[in-house]
Amino acid sequence: DNAIKPSAKHSAMRDALNTSAEDAIKSQHLLSIKIPDLGDYGGKDGIEIFRKSQNKADIAVYDDCVCPVGGMCPVEVLNIIKEERRCALCPIAIFGLDHISGLKAKARSLDFESKSKQRVLKNAIHRKVSSQTIENIDDRLMNDRLEISACVFIINTLEQHAKMDPAQGEYVCRDPDLLRNAFKISLDCEDEIQSFLSRLVDAKAYPQFTSGDFLAKVEIAARRFVHGGVQFGEESFSDIDVVAGHIAAIMRKNKLTFDELSKSEILPQLQGLSNGS
Questions:
Q1: What are the φ/ψ torsions at residue 252 (nearest 5 degrees)?
Q2: Whose CB has fewer CB within 10 Å in the chain, the N or C terminal residue?
Q3: What pLDDT, in 10s, does the model give residues 158-213?
């Protein structure tokens, strides 16, 4: 399946990029976007940078985009996107047809993360933490939402390009036979079980978009499934469940007892606690 995973060594995306720039732009329908609401960017867009690139080896290929500057965000770009790897918001990032699946996985991951941040923000406001902390959480939450919207816009644009290109056929897929056993994944899936399974598919195909919080929920769900009481809904996992899942995973990985964990430096918040305290 390397042909449809852009970051793979001999992917179709890499092969296209290693040909002439114009052929790559045409075959992959490469595009860059600018989001005016994020601020003015007066530099060259990603396509222009790619066209003028003398060394294609400097180009970084990810599953959700191509970076024409090798993943090293210029200062003027960071001033706009605020954080590294906010690629869907980046004015020099390049997106092609084979990025559609990766962009969908990233959007689902960001949606999951934004829901977690909403809970964190609600708790922070309830606990009356500093206004700066609340502002930082709110800023990251807003960036998540902006990037989700950008991902959806890019996906829709690429899919429209694919539909208008007779060379692409009905599906954007290097091997149509794969579609026969494909698991349909939707960005706006409302069914809780299908949404959960979609994230599991993402976790296998695009582990870089899988958060620790989600893995903790998978672990909890697996334990509940074994005991016959699995529930997939968001409400079935409390903050305590998530924290407990993290601690349990750390203990298993490092083969620690509760007493040993309380004396280790892995979780400094637990230092001083013991089984008897």
A1: -65, -45
A2: C
A3: 988 888 776 654 444 444 444 444 444 455 555 555 666 666 667 777 777 766 66
